[in-house]
């Protein structure tokens, strides 16, 4: 097994990968070719089939495990596989564990650490909202531990949703200590619950793709519905407190153009947005710089709208 993060420019390889994506296109001259996204647990690799109708390209579909043969090249400072042969792999030829990207951190330790913040919530109503899912709902807990935080961009791996949530909570913990205006109970509850809708927005691995509800509603609306469900199960839950908590969830992307139905209006909503954005961007940078053994400029990045480069001695 040659994992994607070990591949180097100039190598010719024959290996099995998950075909995570497949899209047909045409060159400027009108010649058809296929764009593939190949995946294993270490990352993804762009693949190009310049002659999809050749005899070396067998029938295959997206989400199939395929054996590919081709040459690794460097294109715009990113590795790419020019594929000459493809065949669909048999189930006995691969182990699923080699193809599921996972968090490098211990899932159980992270979850126990997250539960430690649940215990910091003193308001009984808010504590019960969090416990409704994170303590009492075993099916939810299993999904939450294994889920990704995104299809791509940041934390797009098993355990990514938990890792991201814990990081956001830790950012919020700093702000609670630094800014007395913040209601720690509201902020901790919102931080722990801000992305719970993603367990319904995205399908589990290996698909890790948008569900119908993900396409039609999105994780913010789904998350607010889940908060409402928990609040309705708690007798005499204060309406004002429920609205404040749901506002934090609704506004945590910060801007209307980023998918939030409302912009932040509470200090806690601002704090959650800052924490969420900071962790998402730092993890995205981490994944961009990962395995880039160069201190040259990497080129313009559309997400950050700037050219990027590692500092000398920067950790990976």
Short structural summary:
The chain is α+β, with helices and mostly antiparallel strands and 316 residues long. It has helices spanning 107-118, 124-134, 138-146, 160-178, 184-193, 198-201, 212-216, 219-232, 239-250, 267-289, and strands at residues 12-26, 32-40, 43-49, 65-75, 78-88, 300-301, 306-307.
Walkthrough of the structure:
With 316 residues, the chain is of the alpha+beta class. The chain has ten helices and seven strands. Strands 1-2-3-5-4 form a five-stranded mixed barrel. Strands 6-7 form a two-stranded antiparallel sheet. Helix 5 (184-193) packs across helix 9 and helix 8 runs antiparallel to helix 9. The radius of gyration is 22 Å and the shape is elongated.
Low-pLDDT residue spans: none
Question: CA-to-CA gap between the ends?
Answer: 23 Å
**How many strands, what sense, and barrel or not for the largest sheet?**
5 strands, mixed, barrel
Tally the beta strands: 7
Kindly state the percentage of residues in helix: 25-40%
Output the radius of gyration.
22 Å
- Count of the separate structural domains: 2
Helix-strand pattern, N to C? Answer: EEEEEHHHHHHHHHHEE
Order of strands across the widest beta sheet? 1-2-3-5-4
Proportion of strand residues? 15-25%
The shape is elongated
Q: Which structural class do the helices and strands define? A: alpha+beta
Instruction: Give the count of helical stretches.
Output: 10
- Average pLDDT works out at 93
């Amino acid at each position: 097994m040659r994992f994607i993060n070990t591949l180097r420019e100039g190598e010719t390889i024959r290996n099995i990968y998950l075909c995570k994506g497949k899209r047909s296109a045409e060159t400027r001259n009108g010649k058809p070719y296929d764009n593939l996204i190949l995946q294993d647990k270490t990352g993804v690799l762009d693949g190009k089939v310049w002659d999809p109708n050749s005899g070396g390209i067998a029938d295959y579909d997206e989400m199939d495990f395929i054996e590919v043969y081709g040459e690794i090249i460097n294109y715009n400072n990113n590795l790419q596989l020019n594929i000459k042969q493809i065949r669909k792999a048999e189930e006995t030829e691969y182990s699923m564990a080699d193809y599921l990207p996972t968090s490098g951190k211990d899932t159980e330790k992270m979850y126990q650490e997250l539960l430690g913040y649940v215990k910091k919530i003193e308001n009984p109503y808010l504590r019960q909202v969090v416990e409704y899912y994170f303590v009492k709902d075993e099916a939810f807990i299993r999904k939450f531990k294994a889920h990704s935080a995104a299809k791509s961009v940041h934390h797009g791996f098993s355990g990514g949703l938990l890792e991201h949530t814990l990081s956001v909570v830790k950012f919020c913990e700093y702000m609670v200590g630094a800014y007395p205006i913040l209601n720690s109970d509201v902020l901790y509850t919102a931080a722990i619950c801000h992305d719970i809708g993603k367990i319904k927005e995205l399908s589990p691995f290996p698909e890790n793709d948008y569900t119908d509800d993900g396409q039609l509603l999105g994780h913010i609306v789904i998350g607010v519905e889940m908060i409402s469900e928990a609040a309705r199960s708690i007798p005499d839950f204060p309406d004002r407190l429920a609205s404040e908590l749901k506002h934090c969830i609704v506004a945590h992307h910060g801007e209307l153009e980023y998918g939030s139905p409302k912009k932040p209006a509470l200090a806690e909503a601002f704090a959650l947005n800052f924490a969420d954005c900071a962790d998402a961007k730092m993890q995205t940078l981490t994944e961009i710089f990962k395995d880039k053994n160069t201190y040259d400029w990497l080129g313009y990045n559309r997400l950050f709208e700037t050219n990027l480069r590692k500092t000398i001695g920067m950790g990976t």
